[in-house]
Write a structure and sequence with these properties.
With 240 residues, this protein is of the alpha/beta class. The protein has one domain. It is built from 13 helices and eight strands. The chain has a six-stranded parallel β-sheet with strand order 4-3-8-7-5-6, sandwiched between helices. A two-stranded antiparallel sheet has the order 1-2. The longest helix has 14 residues. The chain starts with a strand and ends with a helix. The model has no long low-confidence stretch (mean pLDDT 88).
């Protein structure tokens, strides 16, 4: 198994690789459970204030540069690393599992009622070889227990969790024992995009690291959260 090179962003680990998908597929075949964290500037700044968030990131098996700010920080340190959005990594894994003709179940968990289910239907039309079971992210305590039993019983090998940061990271860590051989990935609002509830930023914005601006356009209520971006950039420059 290839050993990943590790760098740091504000004392948080970040793993450097040109093809995270290939590394994860190897883990998949070797039945090595993997918790993937998709790190962006907002999450890094949250970890500065919340030791529990920092702890989850440090304990993850793979931390990828999801945000433009993380890639910029690495470049300031002289490390060239391509940005890998969590949604794109998840899509590539779904496609790869479909190519391999695997019939193992896949789990979509999170989002508003009906969203993950619709996202699953769309993916299953694209890739008939995969089987997806879903649940929304608004379960009460009793439903949470039933859902945990379902996951443990079905033993999915890929579990995509869209509960938002840091709730999805906490949930993965707390429930990893249900299937310690699976790939677990926090995918934020990916289900909304796959289901057509929201649109992803145009490619020219993504290519120029401005996806956050399009997200702010779609969700103006996020403006307070976006204030951490200039704070992150300033800190990155000062501690270069």
């Amino acid at each position: 198994m290839e050993t990943l090179k590790t760098s740091q962003v504000f004392k948080l680990p970040i793993h450097l690789h040109s093809h995270y998908q290939n590394w994860l597929i190897q883990r998949f075949h070797q039945k090595k459970g993997t918790h993937v964290v998709t790190l962006n500037a907002e999450m890094a700044m949250l970890a500065e204030k919340d030791t529990k968030v920092a702890e989850v990131i440090r304990e993850a098996d793979l931390v990828i540069p999801d945000g433009a700010g993380i890639v910029l920080y690495l470049r300031l340190k002289g490390q060239k690393q391509q940005r890998t959005p969590g949604i794109e990594l998840a899509q590539s894994l779904l496609m790869e599992l479909g190519k391999q003709g695997t019939s193992c179940p896949i789990c979509f968990y999170g989002g508003k009622p009906g969203v993950a289910e619709e996202a699953a239907k769309i993916w299953q039309k694209k890739i008939p070889n995969i089987s997806i079971f879903t649940n929304h992210g608004y379960l009460n305590p009793e439903e949470q227990i039933q859902w945990a039993n379902t996951i443990q019983g079905k033993q999915p090998k890929l579990i995509l969790v869209g509960l938002g940061v840091p709730r999805q990271e906490y949930w993965i860590r707390e429930n990893f024992h249900l299937n310690p051989q699976a790939l677990w990935i926090g995918v934020g609002g990916s289900f909304d995009i796959w289901a057509g509830v929201k649109n992803r930023a145009p490619s020219w914005l993504r290519d120029n690291y401005l996806e956050w601006l399009y997200r702010l356009y779609q969700e103006p209520w996020r403006w307070r959260r976006m204030l951490v971006l200039p704070q992150f950039l300033l800190r990155a420059i000062l501690i270069k």
